[in-house]
Structures are given as C-alpha cells and as structure tokens.
Specification:
Length: 82
C-alpha cells in the first residue's frame, strides 16, 4: 500500500530494495547462529568474518541523502509552508 503526503502518492516498495548492501551476509550469519543455538564460538566464524568485512567496506561510503524518501518529503514539505 502507498501513503499520501498531501497530494503526493509514495510507493514504499520502490524505495525498499535499495540500501541493503550486507543483507546476504547478515542472513547467513543469523541462520548459522540460529542453527547452532546461539553458540558462535567456532562454528560461525566464517560467516562472522564475512559480515565484518562487508560492514567494514561500507563504513567509508557516504550516504547519498538525495536518494532517500525522507529527503524528498522534507524538500517538498518546505516549499509548501515558506
């Protein structure tokens, strides 16, 4: 379902797929933790390293605020009242 902001219709499905760069690594780590009953000492070390490497590679990348839906809502809302 979409939301209406004034006369603007926003499709959340369009914006939901972006911005999840380490999702595959996170899912594999959490499933390993779940299968091993929260014992992550040695069994999930590979998944943990992959997740840490992915998170570290994403650390230096700046987020682009022009792509987020909140940026556009704030931008459109400002022009309405000023």
């Amino acid at each position: 379902m979409g939301r209406k902001a004034g006369g603007l219709y926003i499709n959340p499905k369009k914006f939901g797929a972006t911005g999840k760069p380490c999702m595959k690594e996170m899912v594999s780590f959490l499933s390993c933790v779940s299968l091993n009953k929260n014992n992550t000492d040695e069994k999930c070390s590979k998944q943990k390293e992959l997740l840490a490497a992915c998170a570290e590679s994403q650390r230096g990348k700046p987020k682009n605020p022009a792509r987020t839906i909140n940026y556009h809502l704030q931008r459109l809302g400002k022009s309405k009242y000023f």
